[in-house]
Amino acid sequence: MRIVIAPDSFKSTASSSTAGEYLREGARQALTELGIEAEVEVFPMADGGEGTSEIFGGQRIILPTTDAVGRLTEATYTYDPATTTAYIDVAAASGLPQVADALAPLTADTYGTGVLIADAQTRGATRIVLCLGGSATTDGGTGILVALGAHAVDKAGLPLRPGGAALASIDTIDTAQLNIPAAALEWVLLTDVTNPATGENGSA
Q1: Residue 147: what are its φ and ψ, rounded to 5°?
Q2: What sign has the CA pseudo-torsion 83, 67, 92, 186?
Q3: Which of 16, 89, 140, 143 could connect to 110 by a Cys-Cys bridge, CB 3.0–4.6 Å?
Q4: Distance of alpha carbon 83 from alpha carbon 188, whole angstroms
């Protein structure tokens, strides 16, 4: 008998890898008690939310950044130097678990995720796989742009406040100070759902 365990993460409780190991241990104990011999394998899965980046191979990079409401935190992403690809979860810095005590969907932003992206570029990344699940923000990635040197501005040329609510006043994106190497990165966006930003069924 061959048993394949392929779990997603248990949100805010266990990563997909950790959950898989728990399940494998439980399966082996049960099989032993029943006198059944079986091969039990774990293949961690992810849906684009927290824990997605860690199922890819590479170096685990931990660095200080900010969460979705601007508080200092630490976040982790995976960098594969062989393919110069960085795998980054938006949920790692800008996700829901970190701000469960301070949800602010209209003012929260993705600046902290931009810090991870900028760091990956300095390490030699030429490709960013950005995993979009579990975000606590509705800023359309404008926080990431700010971290990379660009700014969303209003008709008066003033930078917008952080968060999705301010996007109602956006006029243009000022790229004069944009980090050019970061702008040249190849991007792959991973998501398992399509959510409208606003409206009756919108994420805001």
Answers
A1: -65, -25
A2: negative
A3: 143
A4: 14
Per-block mean pLDDT, blocks of 10 residues, the chain (204 long): 92 85 96 95 87 92 97 97 97 93 94 97 97 91 95 94 94 93 92 76 71
Q: What pLDDT is attached to residue 178?
A: 92
Query: Residue 113 belongs to what H/E stretch?
Result: helix 111-122
Q: Among candidates 44, 38, 41, which has minimal Cα distance to 1?
A: 38
The identity of residue 19, as a single letter, is A
Grouping H, G, I as helix, E, B as strand and the rest as coil, residue 125 is coil
β-strands 186-190, 172-174 pairing: unpaired
Going from the C-alpha of 86 to that of each of 55, 123, 131, 191, 199, the distances in angstroms are 12, 9, 11, 16, 33
| Predicted pLDDT of residue 4 | 97
**Pick from 97, 75, 96: which is nearest to 87 by CA?**
75
Architecture of the domain defined by 46-190: Alpha-Beta Complex (3.90)
Give the three-class secondary structure for 85: strand
